[in-house]
Structure formats: C-alpha cells, structure tokens
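Dear all,

This email documents one entry for the complex benchmark we are building for the journal club exercise. For each entry we list the sequence lines for every component of the assembly. Then comes the predicted three-dimensional structure of the complex as a token string, followed by one or two observations. Please use this as the template for your own entries, and keep the labels exactly as they appear.
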Amino acid sequence: MKGDDIMKFHQLEKKYNLYGWMFVLPAVMVVFILFIYPVSVSILYSFTNKSILKKDFDFVGIKNYIFIFQSKEYWTTFLRSISWTFLSIIGQLTIGFIAALGLNKIVKSKGLYRTLLIIPWAFPSITIAFSWKWILNGVYGVVNNTLQSMGLINEPIGFLSDPRYVIWTLLFIYTWFGSPLFMVNILAALQTIPKDQYEAAKIDGASAWQSFRNITIRYIRNIIGLLVVLKTVWIFNNFDFIYLLTGGGPASKSTMLPIFIYDMAWNTKKVGVASASALTLLVFLMILVSLYFKLLDRWEGTDDR
Amino acid sequence: MKKINKLPVSSLLCYGYLAILVCIAAFPLFWIFISSIKQPGEIISSISFIPQNPGLHYYIKIFTEMNFQQNLMNSLVTAVGTTAIALLVASHASYGIVRYFNNGRKGRVMTRMLITTYMFPSILLAIPYSVLIGKIGLQNSRLGLILTYLSFSIPFAVWMLIGFFRTVPMEIEESAMVDGASPLKTFYLIALPIVAPGVAATGIYTFINAWNEVLFALILTNSTSKMTAPVYMSSLIGAEILDWGVMMASSMVFVLPSLFFFMLIQKKIAGGLTQGAIK
C-alpha cells in the first residue's frame, strides 16, 4: 500500500515537471538560438583572422588575445569604461536618492513633480543626443548664447567637442537621463518603511541621522544594491548613448569598450580582435556581477537575524 | 509653536530643490518643441523662449520631402512584432518558473541563466548577428530586426513577469486544478487574467525598448527606406549642413509615443524592475 503511494507520488512529480518544461521550453530554445549559438560563433571568430568583408578565414591561435592585451589603447579604454561606469552610477544614485527623499517628504502636488521628474527616462537615445547637441551647440546653442550674453564667457565652450570637457558633459547628461530610474525605485522602497519605526526610534532618543542610517538605509539598501548591479551592467554595455552624442570623440576621449569593439569590427574590419575584446568584456562583467551578488546575499543574511 | 514652524521650512526646502530638478529634467523636451516650431531664420538666430511666428513647416517637411513616416512605420512594426512574440514566450516561461521550478535546483539554474543573458553585451551579439542575419538573407528586413530584438526583450520580459506572477496566490489556482482544469487552462483562465496589468506594463516597456533600439538596427540596415526611425535620424548627423529644425521636429515626433506610454505605466515599472530578483 505504502509503496504504491510512493510510486504514485513519483509519477505525479514527473508529470508535474513535464508541465513545467512545457511552459519554459520555448524560452529555453530562444536563449539557445539567440545566445549560445552566436556566442559559440564569437568564440570561434576570436581565434581567427575573420573580417567583415571576407567569407574565408584562417585560425591564428591566441594571437588576437595577445594583440589586445598588449594594446595600450585597449587598456586605456577599459579603464575609462570602468571609471565612466563608476562615476555615472555615483551621479545617478546621488541625484535619484535626493529626489526620492524630497518626493517622499512633500504632500501637495507630489504626483505632478514625480511625473515631470520622470521625463528624461522616457527619452530615446537618439532624442537625448539631438536635444543636448542642440542645447549645447557652440554657435546656436541656448547655453553658450546665454552665458555669452551674460558676459560670463567670451568664447563659446565646446561642451562636447573639447577633450577637456567632453566626459563631464556626458556625465551630466547621463545623470540627467539615469537618475529617474533610481528615484522611482527608491521612492517605492521608501514608502514601504513603516512609520512607527521612526516614532519608536524617536522615543528611544535616536537622532535624525541615526534613524536615517539605521532605519531608512537598512530598509532600502537591498533595492539600491540590486539597482546598482543592473545599472553597472547596462552602463558598461551601453553603446548608443555615447555613440550618438560624440561617436567616441573628440580624439577618442569618450571611447568606451563597446564603441572600441564596434570600431574594431566595422571600421578596422578586424572581427577576430573585436570578438576577443567583446568576450573579455563579458567575462569581466560576469566576475563583477557574481561578486556583487555575494555581497547582496550577505546583506540579506544579516536582515534575517 | 516650534514644531508647527519647523515642518513647513524643511518641506519648503524640498519643494525648492525639486523645482530646480524639474526645470532641468523638463527643459530638453520644452526646448525641442519650441525649436521645432520656430521659423528657419529664427531657429539659428534667436534663443527666445517664445517663437515669433510659430508654424509646423518642419513637421510638414519631414512627412512630405523626407518620407519619415516610412521609417516610423518600420520602427512601429518591428516594435509591435517584438513585443507580441516576447510576451507570448515570456509569459509562459515566467509562469513556469514561478509555479513549477520555484524552489528546486532547476529553477535556480534558470534564474541564473536569465541573469547571465542579461549581462550579455549587445556589442558581443552584434558581430555574430550581422554575419548570421546576412547568411539567411534578412538584412534590411523587419523580420531580421525582430529576431535580434528578442535577445534583449525576452529575458527582460521574463524578469519583470516573474515579479508579477509571484503575487498570484497559489490557492486560487489549486482549487481550479482540483476542479479538473488542465495546467494550460489554469494558466490562461486564472493566472494570466490576474496579472494582466503587469503583462500590459511589461509589454509597453518591451515596446519602448524596441522602439528606442539603435545598435542592431544600425548594423542590419543600410537602405534608407528600410531603416528604423532612430537610425534614419542618426544619419542626419552626417550631413554637411545640419538642419536643426528637421532634427528637432523628428525628435519631437519620435519621443511622443515613448513619453506617452511611459507615463501610462510609471507606477507599475517601479516594482517590476526589482521584484523579479527578490527571492
């Protein structure tokens, strides 16, 4: 009798699993066709002298990898990508956080403020590029003309064309675009904090800073952590934002890894080298993200206790 | 007395800096619009916030001389096609993961795989895609674009939908199953209608992402009439003399759908982005 029940249970479980696969299978197939196959092709290319123009190619061993690891341009670009991602996240998180705290505090016309502050997030990258190129234009731009008519500057500033300013201008525009995502998510997290926590802390004699650190930060740090992980990957991989605004220039001062790889494949026509560079980018991100997730897991562990 | 005074001051401060942020956030949209309705001479000679003689000539130009509607149509068909396929595949997959593999090892493997596909640099995929799409003869076609767009839209949609399906209480489905409903029937008739608002939000977000995409469209199309709107617009930067009025009018037309849909789902997005990852 008991044995029969166990048999029946196993059969049910098998059937149960089968239904699960039925739901998941199409997605698994898509992942296989759109990821595993192309990446295998990329790995293959990275060991060849493949060019976009030619059909035939020869194997060259690890020559492409040696080439990029010895290339000063590659390392400069890599380091620039890292600091660009880091600074972008700092900027977006700070402004998004400040905006969320403000929105959480005000009562009147909160919805209106929120809606208006979200606008940049809805901007397609081509519209970001066109609007800011136009606003910051050296001859007709509203910023340069205003500054000049106020007598603050004599010569127009090349916000996007001067190698000294280009990164800072891009950083400003990217903060403008990326802060709303942080703001909206942090605001949603702030609203889940029970109000009585703050009251209890007040009765215990906690200062405003103490309750901010021990209650506010504690409640929202998981959300912030996750957003930072997502954003790190997005910013590191992002191609079109900088490509459309500066194309990586002037003098390669704003060339990040994706643009470097794009130029390598479509301008220099060295697909092998481009594939090798792109694979190093993926490996780097995978290591980075697994470290991040270890940290997040530790945070979650301390919350349970 | 003190308490009554203290509250408004700090709120006032919030209103103050929020107002500054709103001005910066909204200015580009305002400026695109103002510039797009100025006269050709005025747009490059005056930075006045009020156009002297506003008109729609730049809009007329992009839709008559430049055939911009063709590129918009390419964008629309591609984005709608991508959204439809992505929703179909992703809603099944996310439901399957949540209901059938939630606690097991297989579920963990699948979520890990999802996160991994998330990290894939689109520039890494762009290289083999350009070769493969060329091989099967789908360059300059909407279908080719849709196929490649699935690579970012399906993982993203699964991610968001997992968060929404987690909110469906299991008991409702169990009682339907006990009544003899098949798993598929339970999914279509019970679980899916409950998360319909979430599916709609995910669909709209997928649409916006496909609508805005640049890289794949850039490498897979080269004939003007087959380009999506952003790729066509980006080709305007290469012109010898930039027509800023045309660039502003096309920007305005292109940003509006994105803006409209974004405002529609702004409340849903906040949860959707992060819930998928919370165990």
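Observations: The first helix of chain B runs from residue 2 to 36. Chain B is about 80% helix and 0% strand.
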